């Protein structure tokens, strides 16, 4: 029970928080805009409002995600097929490496799974470290530079795959060189970080969950296009053509980011704009911002949400890392079968995400209540995937799980409503850093479980996901309890954020 002393303490924190912000803001009268007082380095930095930069309000980073995810989905199944072929030839498992028998696949799949695991580790380890610095850095120097840098790295990686596909005798482990540009540029980790901050800069609090959901829909549209095109392209143009198409799509994304995307952060001092990325003071400030005491259990909510998103992504990334290998082994699916299932699954998720967030926004369901419902609905889909012995039940699970990817937009929208905009980049940076570490845990964990149970329980990875989903449900329930324990807290915090 909350005592009167607790309430007095909460009110004191709100009053103190407002006083601090009133001392650090410069009002300019623009709707939704925020100006920050010059720091010790005398930075003149502020977030441009939608009214100052109207094009950003309607058409922003979505085309970049559509093109990049289409490119990645076109090439990813082809990469697995290429690795299976290369490992088969390297181990002399059979003379027909284009169509290996089930016994040969059982022999070479663990090696391919290990290579895929190392790819994931390489593409996530340094970006996780980098995102600690880039979030606070983007608050000062702008969102566009990190979006451009990550898009460029993905483009160079795809270009490297084109070159690798022309070297038939290349050892399988050598394909890891294709992951180096992504590792150095931050890849999807920093692209997501910059994009979430970008959308938060240019949208109102009321529309933010829907706009973040539309970003997910753009992802899904790219995934559907990639899945539809992958197998036909491989048959028509081979490995070389597939990687060339992927490279072309990422080049278009790079051109769009460079020429069309507009900056949301205004920094008048050009000398400070070039401030060193690896500034430990920025990281210290980020950690202090995220860990400082806040009213209405906001600090606890931040870290509980961070943990819940990380656990959700561990299961999502882990399942994705072994799914293609799993359905080949369990149901004897071909690449065409897998891409058709992916198209259906992603299409259902895209429709579910859009309509789920739209309905949630229209009827004003609390974000965390919607997130809890998403997790509850997800549980039976995992049990179905774990227990089924027939492939068509995967389609049933995909239908039930159509709202499964609403969780990310909902919790990020909730965070943006309880955190001041001047702190949002720092909190999102820490969240992105934590999220980027999830593949480092997910890929080895799920690869180990899959390799250990492939012969007697190949669906075991979904039992693991169901346990993680249960823990995530508990964490989200605690945040929701904070909200319902004091129903006026969110309204008070939102008013405080906008003051």
UniProtKB/TrEMBL annotation:
Residue ranges of the region described as Disordered: 1-31
Gene3D superfamilies: MFS general substrate transporter like domains (1.20.1250.20)
PANTHER family: GH23453P-RELATED, ZGC:174356
Protein name per its UniProtKB record: Solute carrier family 46 member 3
GO cellular component: membrane
Keywords, comma-separated and alphabetical: Membrane, Transmembrane, Transmembrane helix
Entry membrane topology: Multi-pass membrane protein
Subcellular location field: Membrane
Chain ranges passing through the membrane: 64-84, 146-167, 173-198, 210-229, 241-261, 296-318, 338-359, 371-389, 395-415, 427-449, 461-482
Bias-annotated ranges (Basic and acidic residues): 10-23
GO MF entries: transmembrane transporter activity
